Automatic annotation (TrEMBL):
<dbReference type="Pfam" id="PF08534">
    <property type="entry name" value="Redoxin"/>
</dbReference>
<keyword id="KW-1015">Disulfide bond</keyword>
<keyword id="KW-0575">Peroxidase</keyword>
<dbReference type="InterPro" id="IPR013740">
    <property type="entry name" value="Redoxin"/>
</dbReference>
<protein>
    <submittedName>
        <fullName>Peroxiredoxin</fullName>
    </submittedName>
</protein>
<dbReference type="InterPro" id="IPR036249">
    <property type="entry name" value="Thioredoxin-like_sf"/>
</dbReference>
<feature type="domain" description="Thioredoxin">
    <location>
        <begin position="21"/>
        <end position="186"/>
    </location>
</feature>
<keyword id="KW-0049">Antioxidant</keyword>
<dbReference type="GO" id="GO:0034599">
    <property type="term" value="P:cellular response to oxidative stress"/>
</dbReference>
<dbReference type="GO" id="GO:0008379">
    <property type="term" value="F:thioredoxin peroxidase activity"/>
</dbReference>
<dbReference type="GO" id="GO:0005737">
    <property type="term" value="C:cytoplasm"/>
</dbReference>
<keyword id="KW-0560">Oxidoreductase</keyword>
<dbReference type="InterPro" id="IPR050924">
    <property type="entry name" value="Peroxiredoxin_BCP/PrxQ"/>
</dbReference>
<keyword id="KW-0676">Redox-active center</keyword>
<dbReference type="GO" id="GO:0045454">
    <property type="term" value="P:cell redox homeostasis"/>
</dbReference>
<feature type="region of interest" description="Disordered">
    <location>
        <begin position="1"/>
        <end position="22"/>
    </location>
</feature>
<dbReference type="InterPro" id="IPR013766">
    <property type="entry name" value="Thioredoxin_domain"/>
</dbReference>
């Protein structure tokens, strides 16, 4: 696995308010193709769901889109996924019954990354942007594609209890989610409607 970049040389994203509407929102009933096969309807899952949305994964030996490192928050999909992989058992022990990654790349493309990175959880594809549009998730355009801005949701009972946005640096996000789960903040924010 490549080492994480020097985050001090990458422009950090700023909170543009594009995720302010998400706390307390209901997850939409949208089946998402999974690298584990079949589809997943996040709204129908019981228990606590951790969903991290990322712009795109690259493939070894293939160039990133032109200007990728200059887009605030774009760089870091592999380090973020690997951090969720490395903290997966702890996340489960802290109460996350389900962990998923989400991007607008197709399942076949995602499957290569899931296998190469040995992810113990599925990646979900929103290639048709139905989930993204239903939740009004923040996006940006790069290389002719609509990509998700990096954010992470903790949901419980089909509703979003906690939102991490913007996420930077991405390789520390899994630890932030783990700390929130251990502190019980996700459930508290859900009860308070935040």
């Amino acid at each position: 696995m490549p080492e994480a970049p020097d985050w001090s040389t990458i422009p950090a994203p700023h909170d543009d308010g594009a995720a302010a509407h998400l706390p307390g929102a209901a997850l939409p009933t949208v089946p998402l193709a999974s690298t584990a096969g079949g589809t997943v309807d996040l709204a129908a899952l019981d228990g606590t769901v951790v969903l991290y949305a990322y712009p795109r994964t690259g493939r070894p030996g293939q160039p990133l889109p032109e200007g990728w490192d200059a887009i605030p928050g774009a760089r870091g999909c592999t380090p973020q996924s690997c951090a969720f992989r490395d903290h997966f058992a702890e996340l489960r022990a802290a109460g996350a019954e389900h962990v998923f990654g989400l991007s607008t790349q197709d399942t076949e493309y995602q499957r290569e990354a899931a296998e190469r990175l040995a992810l113990p959880f599925p990646l979900l594809s929103d290639a048709d942007l139905r989930f993204t549009r239903a939740l009004h998730l923040p996006t940006f355009e790069a290389a002719g594609a609509t990509l998700l801005k990096r954010l992470t949701l903790i949901a419980r009972g089909g509703h979003i209890a906690r939102v991490f946005y913007p996420v930077f640096p991405p390789d520390r996000n899994a630890q932030e989610v783990l700390s929130a789960l251990r502190a019980g903040l996700a459930g508290e924010e859900a009860r308070q409607g935040r």
